[in-house]
Amino acid sequence: MKKSLLVAICIIIACSLIAIPIMLNLAGPSYSLEGAIENAIDFMEESREPYGLLMLDVVYRRFGIEEFADSLQLYDQEAGNLPHKASLLRVFRRIADHDNLLQPGDLDSVTYQADKITVPALYCDQYGLPEDYQRTFEDAVLSGGGYLTHALLAWIWMQENGCELELPEGYIESMYQANAELIEDDELVHDLELEAAAFLYMAGRGELVDKSFLQRTLEVQNEDGGWSFSSDDRDESAWHATVLALLYLLHVKYPADSYPPMLDPA
Q1: Phi/psi at 26 (nearest 5 deg)?
Q2: Are residues 177 and 116 both part of a single domain?
Q3: Where does the pLDDT of residue 29 fall: very low under 50, low under 70, confident under 90, or very high at 90 and above?
Q4: For a Cys staple, 225 with which of 39, 59, 82, 219, CB 3.0–4.6 Å?
Q5: Residue 16 sits in which domain range?
Q6: Cα(231)–Cα(187) distance, integer angstroms
Q7: pLDDT tens for residues 51-94?
Q8: Model pTM greater than 0.85?
């Protein structure tokens, strides 16, 4: 009797030793929001991409991340090393400096369609919106993809600059929903989804971001602390995807009814 009981106990212990690792493996690894943010900060500290530095200045002003307190100074240093981009870099510098001064002809450097969506919003308090801007804005929303997310960014800047755009009733809400729909319900996480999530949170509509997207974003962070343009190709992290992911995660970690503006205030 005692021998049978001993054998049964041994069998139970052996089965437990086998089952527990299997169950832990099925549950998947545990991903920490705090750890992901810390690793992303470490990654972005090494970046000297000018546009990335402007977004890091936003991170500093909105969340007080001291590692990025000198982002504008670094931006100016990098801009000085890129004379062929000087005009366009002066244009976007206003994100971090409300009193940024343009030189004659700087706005002529705005040639990319995505920039034609955002730059008028960036300076609308100074120059107003172009006569054809409403059509530009609506075309961007209708085009979807990156143009849609840039329309959302432009809307954020118009609101912060106190500018008005006549749009049909419910139009902006539809734009928010369209951005949320860019975040697909699958395992793949890519740059456009991170952009939609970050901009929705910056617009105060983070509740529209699919709740499952957070866990998926944490799961595909690369070992160096960054994110790739697409999680199906994780050979190299990209500053653009990483700074967007960082903005998204910081909004999740520090929820608030309101935040400091994205643009440097007057």
Answers
A1: -65, -35
A2: yes
A3: very low
A4: 39
A5: 1-30
A6: 9
A7: 999 999 999 999 999 999 999 999 999 999 999 999 999 999 99
A8: yes
CB 221 within 8 A of CB 227: yes
Identify whether residues 12 and 44 lie together within a single domain.
no
> Going by C-beta distance under 8 Å and a sequence separation of 6 or more, which residues neighbour residue 48?
74, 78
* Partners of 230 in the β-ladder: 190
For residue range 114-166, list pLDDT tens digits in order: 999 999 999 999 999 999 999 999 999 999 999 999 999 999 999 999 999 99
Judgement on whether residues 175 and 203 belong to the same structural domain of the protein: yes
Which of 233, 178, 266, 217 is CA-nearest to residue 32? 217
Contacts of 223-228 with C-beta under 8 Å, sequence gap 24+, read 224/39, 224/43, 225/39, 225/40, 225/41, 225/42, 225/43, 226/40, 226/43, 226/44, 227/40, 227/189, 227/191, 227/194
pLDDT reported for residue 21: 38
Q: Look up residue 255 and give its DSSP letter.
A: -
Residues 51 and 89 in one domain: yes
Give the dihedral sign, CA 122/125/127/131: positive
On whether both 106 and 220 belong to a single domain, the answer is yes
**Do residues 103 and 204 both lie within one domain?**
yes
Structural domains counted in the chain? 2
